[in-house]
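Input.
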Amino acid sequence: MTVIECEIPSGTVLDRRVIEAAYFRDSYRVPLRHPQASMIDIFFGIFGHHPLWMKVVLVVRNRIAAFCGLEAPTTAEILHVETRSSYSVGDKIGVWPIFSLTETELVAGQNNKHLDFRLSVFKETDGGTASVVVSTICNVHNRFGKVYLFFIVPFHKWGVQRLLARAVTAERL
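Output.
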């Protein structure tokens, strides 16, 4: 399955000025075989199925982040993702708070002292073809944010593409 790098969708609720000013941004599109799926189901179809090795990497990263004084998810939050029957803005989905939730988009993220990030999971239909676009934007606040992204971005790009490809292959989307 091919994951296609693309632009952040024009229909996103993310502020266009924030997107353009972002220190880092990326976006990937995959086909959506189940266009009737809720945004919650789509989110967990992608981010609720980390392979064990990826969970271990995230736990190590989060321990380092916590040691540096950053807010980071706990090991339990990484290893045992909680799912509920319904979510609303302000609730945590996975390890992140929800900033926006509509019929076609879920935006989650985190504000931290080194950077703020937003993750958009966007459902779109173009000419009868449905797809999901996962976009990330990061705005840094200091040098630590820049150094952090320098090391994390290669893993982020590879990891998001792997999660999307696995979700499509497993027919969760």
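The two ends are 12 Å apart (CA to CA).
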